[in-house]
Amino acid sequence: MKALIPILTLLFILVVGFSQAEDTLTSSQPQEKDLNGNCSYSLSIYTSCYSPRRTRDHISLAFGDKYGHQVYVPRLDEFPSATLTRCEREVVQVTGPCTSQICYMYIYRSGCDGWKPHDITVSGNFPEPAYFFLHTLIPNHAWYGFNYCNTTSSSSSPSSASA
């Protein structure tokens, strides 16, 4: 009987160790990658009814997770599906580096129309869509957004995006 206790203890340690290793492997690859190692995201953008009827502003986006994985969209306004028309919701498909749950988003606006988003939702292969309520005029020539990540650094703009 005394010889059985160390064997059961070792078996328990092995089972727990392998189950935790499997969880780590699963969480390190949150999305299926394409051949270039990128993942797909859906951006649902609702332009405020207080925005100009249609904008010619240049709009850039950066969003990411708490691990530093960031997707940068240099010119959202150049997507054919993104007319950024007042009182309309538009869905834009983008690809970029794979991330875990999105927790920050920043927008850069350059132009004189004064585009005003109401809200933006980012969906991907992570548990919950990331919802960002803006309903404000994005300052001209400045990054503006939100960081809901639980990190110790307080970055006020995207780390690798430049406009």
UniProtKB/TrEMBL annotation:
InterPro entries named among the record's database cross-references: Embryo-specific_ATS3, PLAT/LH2_dom_sf
Signal sequence span per UniProt?
Answer: 1-21
Q: Can you tell which superkingdom this protein's organism belongs to?
A: Eukaryota
Q: Which Pfam families match?
A: ATS3
This one is known as Uncharacterized protein
Protein keywords: Signal
PANTHER family cross-referenced by the UniProt entry = OS01G0172800 PROTEIN (PTHR31718:SF31), PLAT DOMAIN-CONTAINING PROTEIN (PTHR31718)
